[in-house]
Every structure is written in structure tokens, then in C-alpha cells.
Amino acid sequence: MNDKVKKDMNITIVGHVDHGKSTIIGRMLVDTGSLPEGKLEQVKETCRRNSKPFEYAFLLDALKDEQAQGITIDTARCFFKTEQRDYIILDAPGHIEFLKNMVTGASRAEAGFLVIDAKEGIQENSRRHGYMLSMLGIKQISVLVNKMDLVDYSKEVFTKIRKEFTKFLNDIKVKPKSFLPVSGMEGDNIASSSPNLSWYKGKTVLEQLDAFKAEKFPENKAFRMPVQGVYKFTKGGDDRRIVSGTITSGRIKQGDEVIFYPSGKKSRVETIEAFNRKNPKMVKVGQATGFILDKQIYIKRGDIATLANQEPPKVTSRIKTNIFWLGQKPMEMNKDYLFKLGTAKIRVRLESIIRVIDASDLSNSEKDQINRHDVAECILKLERAAAFDLTTEIAETSRFVLVDDYEISGGGIVDGALPDQQSWVRKQVYLRNTKWQKSVITSRQRAEKYNQKACLILVTGQPDVGKKPLAKFLEKKLFDDGKIVYFLGMGNLLYGVDADLKNNKDEENPNNKQEHIRRLAEVSNIMLDAGAILIVTAIGLEQEDVNLIETSVDHDNILCVWLGKNVTTDIKYDLHLPAALDHQHAANQIKYMLQKRNLIFTP
């Protein structure tokens, strides 16, 4: 990492509406000489012509209008320098923008200014912003008591605000670095001390900026890299597959053994790739990178790359969280939302609310929904397992946002990993993957040879709707087309692989259903590793059964077909076929679905 990057610092500035954030930013731009030449005079002249009093906040709007001309400011960020380092000020116009930047890591703030109007005093949003800064792990916070000119630079007013807000911050376990009396409009205590505040002997705003300690990159923590994508090259016989992403903690070097979660698949770094320069031997936190594995395994966007010799992340579909909800509509039970952590996107539901906290006064209440501006301790249920860390361990991979109707409506941190119904299977799968002996023939080579991609087709539905006849007809049709395909009925397992379960029923679980499903998944995994299309029939599969299978088999390779007029379980099917369809018509629809998913190829 070069010296310039080391000197950069991201600062966020938050506060209640009209408490003067933009004025303070504008003043800092002026006092540090960061404005384009003549811009200040131009804005003042515009104000004079329009008989409008000049305000430093107008500078931000003027600079935004010149974005096309290369001025380094936009709706969320502006840049300036002191002698000590370069700064990026993250001015969040609203909660949502701030939360999006903070949680996704697009602009991680290392310190924060919280602005309070000396005349208006502490507002609900002042406390909410303080709580949010705390929740998102910003430990360096300085409070700017602005507009001191409107209260005649009163020491008593400043002291009262400092005393009251310090108590609130202490209650949320935040120790502020300082309280600074300032006037953004008049420039008091922004870049230099002011005689109007002769009773104040502390730092100016710029001095406080330079006093903040640059956050050290978490280089010594366990390696984490959310997978952004896997890029393939085909030109000139190039068969590389580059796993790419940005390293959020730790480091990785050529030859390291890596494990990808939540699948638990492992390989080894053959080379670290670089564009237009010599390939490095090692890369570390903060760097966007890519590497090639010595053995090709199926990984995808959203997985987290880790090192085999380090503490693994948590993996589960049930998480204990702290959420800050900002959506116009309340967060409710039994409604689907989108959970985004790192590069993973997973559907999620609110399972239960432990307690709701009013961030403005820290009062607790019991609710059955989470309203706008509420902070809640709750349990989320993900559609499938995700990999993450706890906020006390690696904060970078514990932050997430929640999307409702295509809009970011909340975000939070992971406080705990809770067991789910697949936990016991997941442990077996990780052990299996650790001991798995890979063939010298890759899945890609099999796909090219067989002209198909391996997949599992689950044909389910109510009893006596013709699942087996349809599955056998489909098998014959695909076989006649030259596909490597196999039909597996549940009876084949029950009296073979599952014979010990069939003959030794226990009282608590007479059907041993979960173990039956686990063994089905393991047999399916072997068949898919061989490159086959496997067709399985089963009565009335539920989503819980499919989730269990997905623990052993990549969910992208599973297709669910419900046969019968009425769907009587909660399964998320890919295709619903009425039982009245003739086999030819039904098989054609399944074949079309395979073609649409690029599992078999359209002639």
C-alpha cells in the first residue's frame, strides 16, 4: 500500500437537519485552501446579484453543479488536505446514504463529527446519530457545538450541552474525544482559535482532525475476501479462472491453502494475478486482487475466501443481530427482505424481536414490528446459510444492509450465530470436503465432454400423481438425446443405502427423515461430481428438506418440480406442472427449463 493511501482518512459528519453540517464543511474547504481558484468569489457574487446573503453551505451546491468539470466533490464526499494528511469528508444527507456507505464498506469512516446547534440544543436525531455511530463501530467521535454566535458564545450554553450529551454517550458506551464550541458561519474555532471563545482552551476543528488516529488496516486478523466474481478466459486456449475480490482483512500469499464458505470447499493459491504488472507473491487488506487455484472448484459471488490454518467464519442461516431500521414501512414478520453482507445477497425474514430500543432516549419496548428509526435486537432467518464474522471479531464481515422493495431500508451488525436445522449436516459436509479426493478430470471438462452441466432434478408432489412415470419418461427422453442421466427413486435408497435406518427406527424419530435426506444429498453429490443429470422423486418435499439437500449440494445445481394441481407444502419450486399433463408435454417443459438455465444446450 503506498504512502498516500496510508495518509488518507475518512471522516463522517452527521447531525440534525439545519444544525450546520454543510456550513462547517464549506468553511473547512475555504480555510484549508481546497476550493478551485475564484470559486469563493464567484459564489459570493452570485449571492449579491440575487440579493441573497452568502452562506458557506452554498459552496457545496456550487461544486456539485461542476461535477462534470472534474471538481472533487459529490453528494456524499468532498476532499481537502491539512499538512498532516488528506481527508475525505463523508457528508451523509440522510440516514440511508450514511448507512449504505458505512455498512457496505464503500466509504468506511474512521472518525466522526456530530454537529449540534447551540441554540436549538440536542435533538432526537442528535441522539440517533450518536447511537448509529456507536453501533457501526466508530470509536473516535468529536461533538461540534455549532452556531455559538447565536448564543453570544455562551460558555454556560456549551457546558450544558456537553454535560447532557456526555451522559447520553456514556449510556451507549461511547467516550467522545472532545466537545468543540464553533461557529461555521463566522469561522470561530474552525481553523484557528477565536477571541470570541477566549474561555475555551481546547483544539480547533482542524487540530482535532489531525489528532484523530488513522485506523490500522486489519492486516493481522484472519484473512477474509468476499468473492466478487470468478472470471474465465477462453481466447487462445486460455483456460484460467480468476477468483476476484477485495481483501477486507488479513493477507494471502502464493501457495496458501484457501477454504471458501459457506460451502467449505478448499483449494490452493497457484498464482496471484495482477493487471499490466508482474504478479505479486502476496497481497493484503484493502487491495482488490485475483488469484488462480491449483484445483478448480465450484465457487461463486458471495462466498468468503479464508485461509485453512486460521479461525473460520461463522456459517448458519439464523443470526442474532442489532438492526437500525430506516424504511418508510415497518420491518414486519413473515415478509421477505434482501440481506446483503459483503458480496452475498440472500432472502431473509424477521424470525423474532428480542427488544426494540428508541435510539433517541434508549427506552426499551416489546413490539411485533420494527418502526422507522427504531434500533432492535432480533433474530433473522436467512433463506440459506451465509458466512460471516461477529462484530467483536472481524467487524468488516459482520456489517450488513437490508433491502425492502429495491431500497436500502436498514442495516446492522451480527452479534451471534445461532444453530439452524442444517448445522449437524454442515459439520459432516466440511469434514467430507476436507477429505474429498478430487478427480483429475474437472467439472468443466466433463461438461464439455458430455455437452451438459451436472444438476439434480427433484420431482415432488402429493402421492399418486405420477411422479415416477414422469421421471422415468424424462430420463429416457434425455438419454435418447445423448445425455448422461440417471433416475433414482427413494425406494432405491430406503432398501439399500438407508437399510439400517429402515430396519432400526427409533422412537423419537421413527422415520429418520433428516438422515434419509442427508444420505440422498450425499449420493446426489457423488452423481453430480461425476457430471450426471440426476432425477429424484419424493413425496411432498418441504423447503426444509431442500435446504438440507442444499447443505451438501450447490443450490445453483438443484431444480425443484412440483407435480400436481395443488402445491401443499412451503417448497420454493422452479416449475409447477399439473398432474393432468401428458408425459411428453411435461418432459418438454422440464427440458426447456434445463435449456433456459444453460444446464443442457439448445441446438
Key attributes of the depicted protein:
603 residues, elongated, Elongation Factor Tu (Ef-tu), domain 3, alpha/beta, Rossmann fold, 6-stranded antiparallel barrel
- What's the arrangement of strands in the largest beta sheet? 2-3-1-4-5-6
Amount of beta strand: 25-35%
Q: Within the CATH hierarchy, at the fold level, what is the topology of the largest domain?
A: Rossmann fold
Euclidean distance between termini CA atoms: 50 Å
Structural class: alpha/beta
Tell me the domain tally: 4
Mean pLDDT: 85
Name the CATH architecture of the largest domain.
3-Layer(aba) Sandwich
Percent of residues in helices comes to 25-40%
Sequence stretches where pLDDT stays below 50 over 5 or more residues: 1-6, 66-75
The total strand number stands at 28
Backbone CA Rg: 29 Å
Task: Estimate the global geometry from the Cα principal axes.
Answer: elongated
Largest sheet: 6 strands, mixed
CATH class of the largest domain: Alpha Beta
Q: Helical region count?
A: 16
Can you summarize this structure?
With 603 residues, the chain is of the alpha/beta class.
Could you characterize the architecture of this molecule?
The strands form six sheets. Strands 2-3-1-4-5-6 form a six-stranded mixed β-sheet, with helices on both faces. Strands 7-8-13-11-10-14 form a six-stranded antiparallel barrel. A six-stranded antiparallel beta barrel has the order 15-21-18-17-22-23. The protein is an alpha/beta fold and 603 residues long. It has 16 helices and 28 strands. The chain starts with a helix and ends in a 7-residue tail after the last helix. A hairpin with a 5-residue loop joins strand 18 (344-358) and strand 19. Helix 11 (467-480) crosses helix 16 (583-596) and helix 14 crosses helix 15 (543-552). It folds into four domains: 3-211, P-loop containing nucleotide triphosphate hydrolases (Rossmann fold, 3-Layer(aba) Sandwich); 225-307, Elongation Factor Tu (Ef-tu), domain 3; 314-424, Beta Barrel (Elongation Factor Tu (Ef-tu), domain 3); 440-596, Rossmann fold, CATH 3.40.50.300. Mean pLDDT is 85; it is low at 1-6 and 66-75. Helix content is 28%, strand content 30%.
